[in-house]
């Protein structure tokens, strides 16, 4: 029972990691950009959300409903102002640009919010749980998992069934050829990053509710997103979801073995996947 | 009469290397114009420059007399240009139908009778059977048909075709060339880059021969002699031998 409980808690934790990983998988899949600011954007959105809750008295769901469009606008701006200038066949310029931006963002957040840790009040939902037989499941993690599943399914359907999704996939396969049939790559890229950072609005709200955030937390969140995406296979949407689950379960089981071993267990599984199957578990070809 | 498309002293290249040294070319509505020339003569570069894939000055390319040079490719599509690129450049991981739909969903406003998926399937019936097949699983000829179909669904007034016969079996080449009159029937102009000089001459109204980035010959395809073509193709010194 101990272990089944570990797996259930791991799946729930994976729901949060999936919300981190989706946007990263999307940006890598379409533009071959590894966005180093990914974790910092989660923290930035979370801090904006906490301030909104404090200043304007917004409840957690109103914060969520505000952070998603703010995230989308930030993503659109990030792509238009910076990433469209550095995107290309060479992954290095975008890596350097987002690395630099990551440091600047962390320091800017430190100036605005100071180094204090903060969290978002959920109005009691953090403590609520329901029992599934002998296992207790937190209501908040369950909501997170359901949101993650819906977001993943929705993004996958968008990619496969809509005009926008087709233009994204076309640009991802051959951006010059996509431009030759009338797709404006800059618009497609800006929309992709807007979606990626918009999804982080969910991640930011839930992260701030279940735990605390501080301006320097970004790199940790980045690592979890990155590991989930690598485990699942770079650029695959459901792969990122599955990778997040594997990471969450590894950490939860690691915690059961020894409280200090949890995070390390996740890293070890990530390294094992890199060594044995570097293209990721769900990627068909290398 | 203002030609549909014209280039004026078109200069283009890649970085420091200049590949075109002042090309003057005109294309009229409904006309098929062939571009011939040896490898490296600048034929593909010319098509890429017209399509907006290489930087050029605005005045160097005119559509309906209006300067359009240097606009981004997706804006050239809006103006009524489309290209069947060298090497086909299909969207891998997507089905035949999805490849075609990306084009039809971003097309220019059609001038005459619009191209539809249905019309493309009628032109190349094999594509209807393969509609749900990922493009990477098609034969070379079928891929070329998808690439042409994709170009047509952009609703072009001018379709630029870069070596559509390259690497295909003679039977498939005949099949593809047999479809061309259907394309020009409602006024779409064709610019064909073609390695096979005889084929280029038969399929076109006029032809231009390029040598080292310059036009060395142009005229009505049916009236140009083989000797004139080989002189223009290889350069005057070779023709004297």
From TrEMBL, chain A:
Q: Does the keyword Calcium apply?
A: no
| GO cellular component terms, A-Z | plasma membrane
**Major site of localization recorded for this protein:** membrane
Q: Which UniProt keywords apply?
A: Amino-acid transport, Cell membrane, Membrane, Transmembrane, Transmembrane helix, Transport
User: What's a Gene Ontology MF term here?
Assistant: transmembrane transporter activity
Q: Tell me the GO BP annotations in alphabetical order.
A: amino acid transport
- Which InterPro entries does the record cross-reference, listed alphabetically? ABC_transp_permease (IPR001851), BCAA_transport_permease (IPR052157)
* Protein family (similarity comment): Belongs to the binding-protein-dependent transport system permease family. LivHM subfamily.
**What protein name is recorded for this chain?**
Branched-chain amino acid ABC transporter permease
| Lineage, highest ranks first | Bacteria, Pseudomonadati, Pseudomonadota, Alphaproteobacteria, Rhodobacterales
From TrEMBL, chain B:
Q: Which residues cross the membrane?
A: none
Highest taxon of source: Bacteria
Q: Give every ABC transporter domain span.
A: 5-237
Q: Which InterPro entries match?
A: AAA+_ATPase (IPR003593), ABC_transporter-like_ATP-bd (IPR003439), ABC_transporter-like_CS (IPR017871), BCAA_Transport_ATP-bd_LivF (IPR052156), P-loop_NTPase (IPR027417)
| GO MF terms, alphabetically ordered | ATP binding; ATP hydrolysis activity; branched-chain amino acid transmembrane transporter activity
Q: Does the keyword Transport apply?
A: yes
Tagged with keyword Repeat:
no
The biological processes this protein is annotated with in GO are:
L-amino acid transport
Q: Which keywords does this Swiss-Prot/TrEMBL entry list?
A: Amino-acid transport, ATP-binding, Nucleotide-binding, Transport
Gene3D superfamilies, A to Z: P-loop containing nucleotide triphosphate hydrolases (3.40.50.300)
Please report which protein family the annotation says this sequence is part of: Belongs to the ABC transporter superfamily.
- Stated name of the protein: ABC transporter ATP-binding protein
Protein's organism? Pararhodobacter aggregans
